[in-house]
Amino acid sequence: MGVRTALTDLFGVEHPIVLAPMGGVAGGELAAAVSDAGGLGLLGAGGGDVDWLGREIDILKARTEKPWGIGLLAWAVEAAVLEWVIAQRPSVIVLSFGDPAPFASTVRDAGIPLAIQVTTLDDARQALDLGADVVVAQGSEAGGHGEGRGTLPFVPAVVDIAGATPVLAAGGIANGRGLAAALVLGAAGAMIGTRFEATPEALLSADERAAIVAAGAADTTRDRILDLAQDSPWPHRFTARTLRNRFTDTWHEREDALRFDTTAKEEFAAGVDRGDMDYLPIWAGEAVDLIADAEPASALVARIADEAVQALHRVTSGTPPA
Amino acid sequence: MGVRTALTDLFGVEHPIVLAPMGGVAGGELAAAVSDAGGLGLLGAGGGDVDWLGREIDILKARTEKPWGIGLLAWAVEAAVLEWVIAQRPSVIVLSFGDPAPFASTVRDAGIPLAIQVTTLDDARQALDLGADVVVAQGSEAGGHGEGRGTLPFVPAVVDIAGATPVLAAGGIANGRGLAAALVLGAAGAMIGTRFEATPEALLSADERAAIVAAGAADTTRDRILDLAQDSPWPHRFTARTLRNRFTDTWHEREDALRFDTTAKEEFAAGVDRGDMDYLPIWAGEAVDLIADAEPASALVARIADEAVQALHRVTSGTPPA
After folding, report:
1. Cα distance from A191 to chain B (closest Cα, Å)?
2. Quick check: B150 and A156 CB within 8 A?
């Protein structure tokens, strides 16, 4: 009953649904659940913490024999880590945020499909020039780091330059209607983060999960506040969408002041240390409007795929949307 | 061959394609072209310039006998103007930007369908409480004034609370793939602005039209610069997406300084007066990435509708996107 696309063909998976490699949140249990349900699970390895990755890969392999992959931050990854990751033989390596040029040939020479996530049309052109096997077009609606393009017009613009290279839509997709929209826009599938973040399989505390389920998009903000508060080395061009909290509200549109405020940074660090929700960074996208429960990822994949087929059928059968 | 939706049923039109009522740009010729081709043309009356409207309605009526409507700015319209507009018996009145509450019952009591454009979920709830016949969910990708939500996740969130009330998707839609995406998200159609702005029928200079065709989304910016430069009375919550030019680049992220800079405002007024493209406000959305020519509106409507059907068929037939 799945929708067959260039993505499902490339990876031999049932559904064109890819787990976003959310750093530290998309671990072995979540990636295995998505893969085992017919999607493509990705481990969110950040810059490449090999200890964390080794442990999560063990968990993953104990739970599924289906294809899975690893996502890495291009601005943070080191060559030795990439070699270690390649040695794990994932079905795909995703490079996001930063210049993928130094790593593209290494991945390709190892015979591992390379996906490159992009947030601008210029970066999409570079990804294609580097021979990416998949381009992920991420819109500003996404949770976590990103840039300013809206997913709806960005995806078809990337598709128009991608030729036969499959494009994934990312940012703002949480259900089958969103997946169906991605597909008719010309994408070969959807990369989904926040919706899977709010599952029991994600590496998140119960309080954090409950906050995502309770939140609406108006409770999110895209800024540099949480990066500035911890002197994060993230490249300046990327902002992050998170749930608003007392700390982000305090510093909203006052980023320049926060940059040099040592007292505020100490206050932030102490708040995070004690697990205070007024300070804790919770990455979450605008799709929180569409998340009303903490349904397990293992069931979500099939439901999203079914809903996508239903959404397409509802329109093509000419019946007015309910 | 059209897609039948709650919108096409409500207005008796062939295609679920609505011309955005772009103030001063969507005049009689453009609205008539869209309506005559089977869409729903709307005149962009701004706050309600009755002289302009009277002239453009005459032009429109000389060219089509199909349904058409009028869009008004809720923050700017006066009761007497609304009565005059109602007396023209449009098929729909669209209220955008600002509180529609003072006007909703007047429009409804006159027996004219009321559409309310919204940019937040709270405003969507208010529009439904006011008994709107159509809710337009506008995303940040749109050209001209708007707010911060992304169209792709915003539309299904509005659909989920709208019950049987038809929802239109607005912001970032320029072709049939975008219309198809709107429909599978649950919308009953798409409101399209920038794509129609770049047609010969729009009230735009040749230079302005050429600038839109040449631009990419990275050439747009959403801010308050052009409103501040002319001491515009637009409500502060709404920013505007325009083509970047020398003036907007100069004041990017320096809006507080511009607010009180009399010299800059005089420089801006003089630049606009002489038609200098370094200063002229050209409202345009992220969909400019998808606009490569100035195809006539009369042909566009049918092409967008056909492409939408093709996009849906391409996915449902299971063939990978090319």
Report:
1. 14
2. no
Of B156, B174, B218, the CB nearest to A120: B218
**CB-based burial label for B317 (10 Å; 0-12, 13-18, 19+):** exposed
pLDDT in tens, B175-219: 999 999 999 999 999 999 999 999 999 999 999 999 999 999 999
- Report the 10 Å Cβ neighbour count for A249: 11
Q: Which two tokens stand for residue B253?
A: 């992220």
User: Per-residue pLDDT tens for B238-291?
Assistant: 999 999 999 999 999 899 999 999 999 999 999 999 999 999 999 999 999 999
Contact A120, B218 (CB under 8 A): yes
Q: What are phi and psi of A293, to 5 degrees?
A: -160, 175
* Residue B256 at interface with chain A, using a CB cutoff of 8 Å: no
Residue A201 has pLDDT above 50, yes or no: yes
Structure-token pair, residue B197: 């702005």
Chain A residues with CB under 8 Å of B185 CB are: 177-178, 180-181, 311
C-alpha span between A180 and A171 (Å, rounded): 14
Interface of A with B in 173-192 (CB under 8 A): 173-175, 177-178, 180-188
Cβ B321–A5 below 8 Å, yes or no? Answer: yes
Contact call for A185 and B171, based on CB within 8 A: no
Interchain CB distance below 8 Å, B153 and A287: yes
Please answer yes or no on whether B186 and A285 come within 8 Å at the CB atom. Answer: no
Contact partners, residue B229, CB within 8 Å, separation at least 6: B247, B251, B258, B264, B265, B268, B269
- With 0.90 as the threshold, say if the pTM is over it: yes
Give which of B208, B42, B38 is closest to B115, Cα–Cα. B42
By C-alpha distance, the chain A residue nearest B220 is A149
pLDDT digit string (tens) for B94-141? 999 999 999 999 999 999 999 999 999 999 999 999 999 999 999 999
Contact A216 B174 (CB under 8 A): no
Read off the pLDDT of residues B15-32 as tens digits, 9 standing for 90 and up. Answer: 999 999 999 999 999 999
From the list B13, B98, B10, the residue with the least C-alpha distance to B48 is: B98
Q: What does pLDDT average to over chain A? A: 96
